[in-house]
Each structure stands twice: as C-alpha cells, then as structure tokens.
Amino acid sequence: MKTKSASNWSAAQSEEHYGFKRWGANHFSVDSEGFVQVQPLSDGRAVRLMDVVEEAASMGLKAPLVIRMQDTLRHRVTQLNEVFRKAIKEEGYKGEYRGVFPIKVNQLREVVDEVVSAGKDFNYGLEAGSKPELMIALGMHEGGQRLIICNGYKDKDYMRLALLGRKLGKKIIIVVEQLSEVDSIIEIAKETGVKPMLGFRVKLQTRGEGKWASSTGDNAKFGLNTAEILFAVEKLRAAKMQSSLRLVHFHIGSQVPNIITIKAAVTEAARFYCQLAKMGFPMGFLDVGGGLGIDYDGSRTNFESSMNYTVGEYARDVVFNIREICEASGVKVPDIVTESGRAVAAPHSMLVVEVFERINKHESLGKQHQPKSRHKIVDDLAVLLKNKARLGRLERFHDALQKKEEAFSLFNLGYLDLENRAAAEQIFWQICEQIDKESDKAGYQPEELHELKKLLADQYVCNFSVFQSLLDSWALKQLFPITPLHRLKEKPTVNAVLVDITCDSDGKVDRFIDLQDVKDYITLHPLKAGQPYYLGIYLTGAYQDIMGDLHNLFGRVNEVHVFLEDDEPNGYYIEEALAGSRISDVIEGVQYQWEELCRRIKQQIDHATKKDLIKPREGVRLVEFYESQMLAKTYLNIEHTGKKKR
User: Fold this and answer.
1) How many CB atoms sit inside 10 A of residue 96's CB?
2) Residue 97: alpha-carbon gap to chain centroid
3) Left if phi > 0, otherwise alpha if psi is -120 to 50, otherwise beta: which for 5?
4) Fold observed for domain 373-455
5) Which distant-in-sequence residues (6+ apart) come within 8 Å of 244 by Cβ?
6) What DSSP line would sit under 300-326, residue for residue?
7) SS3 at position 601
C-alpha cells in the first residue's frame, strides 16, 4: 500500500496537523495557497504573515522578527470588557466591571499605549507592581474613573507617588501586601494630607493549579492571613482611616487551567469582602487578580498549558459567585476588578525565526569513511541490520544498544580505530531508523521505542536566542504553538527539534504541543538549498517580550507593528518598525564603551603593521571592518544563493 505523497497534501491537512483551529482562537489559519494568515479581529479580514516578513526584510528588518498585530490587542481588550458587561447584564448584577491591565505582563510603550487607547470606552485601568511601573501608569493613565491598582513591595516613595496620583484626581488603590505597610501608609497619608484608597490582599486557602500554584496558601509571598487582616483593621481604626479601606484582592496564579479553582477562590474572597463590609468598612471593589488562561496547546483541558473554560464562562462564574455570596450575606455587591494580562496580551504578537541549517545524525556519521579492515563489532551490527526478520523490534534495539556501548568502550581502551567507531555509529542509527519505521506500522509500541523518534529527530538551527525571545520555554517549560509560515501545501516529513544560535546546550525547544500529550519533536519540511524557511512561534505577547536576558549579548530582535487597512494592497500597513539591538548597544549594556574598544583594536593593528605582520592597506581595512561591525545587528546575517521562492 502506497503512502500519500507530499504532492497530494493540502493546506487544510496542514491546518489540522498543526492544530490552528484548536489554539488559534479564530485569529490564525492557513489560506488555500499554504500560507499562514492572521485575522486580528476575527471578522474575515486577514493578513498573510509572509507578506509582513518580506516587507519587513525590504526595510532591513530580517528575522528574528516580532510581529505585533495591534488590532488583535485592541480586540482582546474590547472582548474582555464586553464579556463581563454581558455577564453582568445576564446575571442582573448591580455592580460594574472595572478591569485593569497589569503592566508587568508587557511594559513596552507600544503595548501599554494601545491598551490604554482601547480601554477608553470601558474605563479600563492599569495595575503596577513596582515603582517604575507605577511611574509609567501615572503618566499613561487617562480619566478620573479608570483605576490604578498598586501591588508589590512598596517603599515610602512608592506610596508618595500613589498619593500624588490621588492629588491629581486619579482613582489609585494601594493594595496592602504586608502588615508592616499599614503603618507606612498611615504615616505618609498624614505627611501629605491625602486620604488614600486602600485594599487588602488576602491569603486564600484555596489552592491554585498549574505552574504558579504557589501564589496562594499559607506560604504565599504576598498577602495577609486572617489574623493579620484583623490587626490591619485595628490600625486603620486607631488612625481614624476606616473610610480608606475599599477593596479586597487575591491572586491564585498566572494561567489557571481549571475553572473549579477559580470558582472556589472567588467564593472564598467574596466571604472576606462581606465580612469586612459588615464590620463597617465602605468597601466597593473586589479584585479577583489575574489567572485567566490562554489555551496554548488547544486541548481545552485543565493541563497546565491549556484551560478547560472560555472567557465567557470565566466572566459568568466570577459574576455569579460574587453575587450569590453577597446576596446571601445581605451585602451590596462590589464593582469587579480583574487583572487579566496574559489573556489580553499573549495573542497579539508572535516571533518569526528563520531555519538556516539542519543537523542530521545519519547523514553525518561516516557514510563516506568505511574502514579498510572492519572490526567484529561492526560486522555484528551489520548482521543486526540485515537480519531484521529474525528478532523482534525491542530485542534488536537492545542488542544494537549493547553493541554501540561495546564499541565506545573498545574505542576508549584503544582497541577500535576512528573509522570503525564511525561505521559502528552509522549502522546503529540505521538500525534505529529501521525499527522506528516498523513501529509506525505495528500499532502498539513499547515505551523504550517511544524515545526513538526523539533520538532520531533532526536539529533545525534557527537564528534566534531562546533566552532572549522565548524565556518561559527554557525556564518554565512553557509550551507555545509553532508552525511553518509557508509551504503548507507540502506534506511535512522531517521530525525535528529547534536549536538556537547561543553557545548554551539548553538553547533549544524540544517540547511541542499535541492534542493528546506533549511531543518531543515537531514535523517540518525538508530545507531547500538557497531558499529561506520561516517558522512562527505564536502567543508570545505576554512576558516573552520583556523578560529576555542578554545571554551571548544577542539583545532585542527586530519588530514591526501591523494595523489592518482595507485600502492597502495586502490589507495592512506597518505603522512602526523598530530595529533590534546593534552590537554597540549590547556592549554598552555590559559596561564597555564601544569607541574605546575600537581604539584598542586600532592600536593593536598599528602595532602589527609596524612589525610588518600585516600591510598598511590591510590594516586600514581591518579597522574599518571592526568599526562597521559595531553598528551591525547582533543576530546572524543569513544570505541565500540561488533562486528565491516562498
């Protein structure tokens, strides 16, 4: 029976294979020509991402490239607010929704600016978790009705800044995270003569789920336990500041996968709110924190990279549970605050990387260097390769593994030469490939043989740094959807893992989304000589833009901001293009002066010229080259030869 050829493969099959309809939230799809397109507003208008990549390249901005779909960011802000408004109306809730965007998720000016603009009609505010973030929030915040929520550890200057905002007529709520903060707030309020608006962050007993479950419970980093809340209440009463307490806040972690956890946390926090209201405090706001998830893998489960609920269900459950507890307690319902950052920001940007090299085991292991005199260990492996019918797959694998280890031992002891070691390795990998192909047809596969596909997978070398652009993949094993941007009418036939250009062995992506589980490889297309091959890494708009480091001094990547525009030929325009870091930029970031380095190199070249090690003209060219590289981009400058195709 013949397998379906690559030529019979369709764009629709690629769309299913990579799971676009599961994780894409109606924003991403594959067009009939096999190109990935994005629908920022899910209204049918689409932008082909390869068009953006090629236009950016024509502007001198090659991959690695961040593409921001600013309309998607606006759409997510609008969607969240409208979903809560709908839930409030349907549940007959008497309060309002007063969401805030947590700046820590992405502090970049272009992101915060777009969020503030999109939230204008909804009184959508900002949340700050540090003094620098508060200074951004104060400057970017507009309108007297939008909230600014102040979280995190606070010194007295942080508190003074918050009260400065109160003087300007802003609704700023300082959330008390530690009991010691209450005394400082009382002192600063008296010093400035400004009445603060305060909230208490409570330590819930409801446990979170997923990677950030430790955000709750007795050992949580932030928040007041029940006894500390009572102490804080006494301090406010003694200072005659009862009227300042307006909010109860909790946070059960980022990316909460299970709606049951959210329901339980909201119920517990609503009890705290009602108790404080009954104690005579004016209250008015219940802040349910962040945690609204993103379905990175498309499984729609309570797996840590997914979520088993929709945004609509989240809003309805928050509204319903607060209303139920308040009505049962005879307390007026509060305005509801959420700090959903990941759900707002993640879908709006993606990272484009170029694959420029393939590391392949069986192609590089000695096919052209057969030994003149074959060792018995090589003959034994050759017999295993030829007599595949005699033994079962697992037994052959065990025997081949034993012979491979034996060959390494013989080599280390000096009894096996280099040519025979290479031949042994080559035949071992041929046996593994043979067993793997048989396993695809055999149905059941022993656990040990599951590892074969990972062992045999090629390494596709991509021009980017995991540590700069995809930090959560390395640090937290976060899954992100990854697909080719083009050639999706061709059948993908190469199992691969992705490796970056850093000199760190951890600079790789070897965990990929799968509907059933996590895969150790991704299926991609063979590379074509002289032709670029681009991959898209999606849903990277939360945290990845801002948390990268300077490992190997690669720095920020190129970036373009894209808006829909019906009058443009391809349906969009690039509103802003930002060049990535130059070598001089990152060098200065680690306390070198690039001009001083150039001066030192010139001195060394002048010295070599005087010793007649190099000629004067060559010395001048070397100085010019060194200085020109200071202004070059940090990532590889990949050049293609031959006819260029998509």
Assistant:
1) 17
2) 28
3) beta
4) Methane Monooxygenase Hydroxylase; Chain G, domain 1 (1.20.58)
5) 189, 195, 196, 197, 198, 236
6) -SSSTTS-SS-HHHHHHHHHHHHHHHH
7) helix
Is the pLDDT confidence value at 604 over 90?
yes
Q: Does the fold of domain 91-340 match that of domain 6-69+349-360+463-583?
A: no
C-beta atoms surrounding 187 within 10 Å: 13
- What confidence tier does 266 reach under pLDDT thresholds 50, 70, 90? very high
Cβ(266)–Cβ(288) under 8 Å? yes
Q: How many CA atoms within 13 Å lie on the side-chain side of 641? A: 0
Choose between 393 and 263: higher pLDDT: 263
Which pLDDT score is estimated for 550? 82
38-68 pLDDT, tens digit per residue, is 999 978 899 999 999 999 999 999 999 999 9
Q: Which two tokens stand for residue 249?
A: 């806040």
| Active-site residue, 432 included | no
CA distance 393 to 405: 18
The superfamily CATH assigns to domain 91-340 is: Alanine racemase (3.20.20.10)
Collect all residues with Cβ–Cβ distance below 8 Å to 334 and sequence separation of at least 6.
95, 248, 273, 283, 284, 285, 286, 322, 326
Tell me the CA distances in angstroms from 268 to 232, 261, 632, one per residue in order. 19, 11, 55
What value does the CA radius of gyration of the chain take, rounded to a whole number of Å? Answer: 30
Q: DSSP E strands: which ranges in 39-99? A: 47-48, 65-69
Using the Cα atoms of residue 388, residue 394, residue 395 and residue 400 in order, give the sign of their dihedral.
Answer: positive
> CB under 8 Å to 197, separation ≥6 — which residues?
166, 171, 172, 173, 174, 244, 246, 247
- The first and second tokens of residue 576, run together, are 């802003």
Q: Classify burial at 308, counting beta carbons within 10 Å of its beta carbon; exposed 0-12, middle 13-18, buried 19 or more.
A: middle
Q: Where are the domains of the chain?
A: 6-69+349-360+463-583, 91-340, 373-455, 584-630
CA 47, CA 482: separation in Å to the nearest integer?
A: 18
User: What's the CA gap between 255 and 345, in Å, rounded?
Assistant: 13
349-359/65-69 β-pairing: antiparallel
Q: Is the pLDDT of residue 418 over 50?
A: yes
CB count within 10 Å of CB 533 equals 20
Q: What is the token pair recorded at 504?
A: 């760190």
Cα separation, 574 vs 55, whole angstroms: 9
Enumerate residues 6+ apart whose C-beta is below 8 A from 251.
201, 215, 216, 222, 289, 290, 291, 339
Bond from prior residue into 347 cis (ω within 30 degrees of 0): no
The residue count of the chain comes to: 646
Task: Say how far apart CA 263 and CA 259 lie, in whole Å.
Answer: 6
Residue 133 near residue 151, CB atoms below 8 Å: no
Q: Is the Cβ–Cβ distance between 552 and 65 less than 8 Å?
A: no
Model confidence over 224-255: pLDDT tens digits? 999 999 999 999 999 999 999 999 999 988 89
Q: Given 150, 432, 462, 503, which residue is catalytic?
A: 503
Report which secondary-structure segment, H or E, holds 343: helix 342-345
Q: Which two tokens stand for residue 366?
A: 């000695």
447 falls in which pLDDT band (50, 70, 90)? confident
Q: Which amino acid is at 291?
A: G
pTM: 0.91
Report domain 6-69+349-360+463-583's class.
mainly beta
DSSP label of 194: -
